[in-house]
Amino acid sequence: MNDQERYDNGMQVRRGVLGDAHVDRTLTRRNDFNEDFQDFITRFAWGDIWTRPGLTRHMRSMITLSLLIALNRGDEFRMHVRAAFNNGVTREEMKELFMHAALYAGLPAANQAIHDAEKVFAEMEAAEPGSTTRVPDVGDDKTA
């Protein structure tokens, strides 16, 4: 696979997971300073890792949320809470993930994740009343 194919595959997955609106906003903020980084994210994170066989997008979302809880990466975590719904992750699964993370990543990290997730849920419900399973847009997070 060449770099252009990797980029194209990565962009397709990135849009599927994060949503067109988020990716479009990210692309409109491209400039000489961040363009190489955006290409890197698209080709390697989304085009190499998220497209690998062996794990479903659902499982990748669960793993990503777990790691972001452990690393205390709030902005990225909130973005991936939204994205996880696009991959079929439910609130109940997130709740269990947070309980499990409390054992291995620590109570403060899991507690913060629960509060952050509740904020995301509230934003999602305000944007699309009655929807708790699919996110129309990832929002204005600054990452990925």
Automatic annotation (TrEMBL):
InterPro entries: 4CMD/NDH-1_regulator, AhpD-like, CMD-like, Decarb_PcaC. SUPFAM superfamilies: AhpD-like (SSF69118). Its EC number is 4.1.1.44. Keywords: Lyase. Residues 36-115 form the Carboxymuconolactone decarboxylase-like domain. The keyword Nucleus does not apply. GO terms for molecular function: 4-carboxymuconolactone decarboxylase activity; peroxiredoxin activity. It comes from the Bacteria. Residues 125-144 are annotated as: Disordered. The keyword tRNA-binding does not apply. NCBIfam families: decarb_PcaC. PANTHER family: 4-CARBOXYMUCONOLACTONE DECARBOXYLASE FAMILY PROTEIN, CARBOXYMUCONOLACTONE DECARBOXYLASE-LIKE DOMAIN-CONTAINING PROTEIN. This is 4-carboxymuconolactone decarboxylase. It comes from Pandoraea commovens. The lineage of its organism: Bacteria, Pseudomonadati, Pseudomonadota, Betaproteobacteria, Burkholderiales. The gene is pcaC.
